[in-house]
Predict the 3D structure of the following.
Amino acid sequence: MENALPSLPTKAHSKATSLPNVATNRKVHKTVMPSTVQSKDSLEKLITKELPMLYRVAKRLVATQDEAEDLVGQTLVKATRGWENFDGSYPKSWLVKILKNEFLETLRRKKARPLLVEIDEAHWNSLPDGPLAVDHLEVSEVLAAVDKLPEEYRLTLVLFDVEQLTYDEIALATAVPVGTVRSRLFRARRLLRRALPAYTA
Amino acid sequence: MKLHKQNPIPDIPCKHMEGLVNQLGDGTLGPLKRSFTELHVKSCPQCSLFLENLQKLHCKLQSSSEEGLSEETLSRIRAKAVLFEDETTEECESE
């Protein structure tokens, strides 16, 4: 059975959330151009389709299942309010951007700070203890290593490798240039490689 | 001519090729860079193993997206969305 749609609040709100037009000057391949959505009915369809994705991303950003549910709930409220101002392009990026902003807002309210991207040069350039045997790794072990990455790297890696967003979509969702997405992925993978257990047999 | 420096760990790529091999795995290289990188990977066992591991990791991570959302979780998220909406509406009205 298809999941029932959360009963979303319908009232339009002045504090709408919309994406800045980051990709205006970027070349976008036709093959990666996402479908657009325009009608109000499509908000329900979009959320029904993307709710599992939002929840998976939220789980990688926060520590507990309860916090992930809170984060997605807040995202749905903001998405509903921002729907009127949303131009219908890059819907996944739009939702992830709201989720990310809500995550940062939650940290701000708690007066906590996201894990800063300060990488120890020695660790960054160090070699792992041994070769990696990916076949021996469980998915849960890989995800546990992903959770150790700094937030910006973790989010970029999850959006690309787990959720299959394109570089362009991630750039929009995280409000950074495509080149930054590329370098974050590169660094995320290098750090992930060092966070994974080496094969010592 | 020796094009790559051997590393003691067999799946650590050549330093100057790591970025390109990452992008080769992502499928985001243009034709020229792709040909160059593919040629290198074919002749370099370490970059080849690195790419293979990268693709296996990608598959493992991608498989975690098959996890669905239970009715129970969906119901809790729905309840929380309504609760947050009510809270913020009250805050706006009291201002």
Q: What stands out?
A: Residues 15-69 of chain B form one domain. The interface with chain A takes residues 7-12, 18-19, 22-23, 26, 28, 49, 53-54, 56-58, 60-65, 67-69, 71, 73-74, 76-85, 88-89 of chain B (CB under 8 Å). The CA atoms of residues 20 and 37 of chain B lie 7 Å apart. The mean pLDDT of chain B is 86.
